[in-house]
Specification:
The complex is a heterodimer of chains A (113) and B (113).
Chain A lengths: L3 E4 L2 E4 L5 E7 L5 E8 L3 E10 L2 E4 L6 E3 L9 E3 L8 E8 L8 E2 L3 E5 L1
Parallel strand pairs in A: 2-11
Antiparallel strand pairs in A: 1-3, 3-8, 4-5, 4-9, 5-6, 7-8, 9-10, 9-11
Chain B lengths: L3 E4 L2 E5 L4 E7 L5 E7 L6 E6 L5 E4 L2 E5 L5 E6 L8 E8 L14 E6 L1
Parallel strand pairs in B: 2-10
Antiparallel strand pairs in B: 1-3, 3-8, 4-5, 4-9, 6-7, 7-8, 9-10
């Protein structure tokens, strides 16, 4: 099992550019989520999904889109990057919503200039 | 809204010292989790607490779920250099429909050999 994988590991964007952060898990988990981590702010939930075809907003969803067409993949899209989106992004998955053991990917460090 | 306070924000200690950190919430939860994030990695679950008043150990780590269900603490005894990282509390209502994790802002631990 690869667990939760994320690509790319590092990315630099210019303001206004778009990109997709990839996340995949091979554990057949129903629940997947995206967090951003900023210094002194902990991990804040951006979007989550309780299963294929179902997504919902978390605490800080503005500027991000998600979709879940398969159980395995949960990409995060930035439509028009802004410097405020400079952060480290983590994808996580768990057996189902309410399962306490969430497995995190290694993270994507994004810089927007 | 819900407030979650984790303290201290950071600690600089000597190898061999004991460490204590805690979280308090404005809301009641039925589960308290503690995660550790090694530098450059995603968080990993350390300890899960399910019952008010519960005291649980995992090696040199001891965590307690407060009687009021609004707080939890984590102790690390006889710290070693590999304890370095960020520790997060993450309360939740296990099994409920609202099973999204909320993370504290983290306690950054530095250990001097």
């Amino acid at each position: 099992n690869a667990g939760v994988t994320q690509t790319p590991k590092f990315q630099v964007l210019k303001t206004g550019q778009s990109m997709t952060l990839q996340c995949a898990q091979d554990m057949n988990h129903e629940y997947m989520s995206w967090y951003r981590q900023d210094p002194g702010m902990g991990l804040r939930l951006i979007h989550y999904s309780v299963g294929a075809g179902i997504t919902d907003q978390g605490e800080v969803p503005n500027g991000y889109n998600v979709s879940r067409s398969t159980t395995e993949d949960f990409p995060l899209r930035l439509l028009s990057a802004a410097p405020s989106q400079t952060s480290v992004y983590f994808c996580a998955s768990s057996y189902r919503q309410g399962s306490f053991e969430q497995y995190f990917g290694p993270g994507t460090r994004l810089t927007v200039t | 809204g819900q407030q979650l306070n984790q303290s201290p924000q950071s600690m600089f200690i000597q190898e061999g010292e004991d460490v204590s950190m805690n979280c308090t919430s404005s809301s009641i939860f039925n589960t308290w989790l503690w995660y550790k994030q090694d530098p450059g990695e995603g968080p990993v679950l350390l300890i899960a607490l399910y019952k008010a008043g519960e005291l649980t150990s995992n090696g040199r780590l001891t965590a307690q779920f407060g009687i009021t269900r609004k707080d939890s603490f984590l102790n690390i005894s006889a710290s070693i250099p590999s304890d370095v990282g960020i520790y997060f509390c993450a309360p939740m209502n296990y099994g409920g429909s609202q099973g999204n994790l909320i993370f504290g802002k983290g306690t950054k631990l530095s250990v001097k050999p």
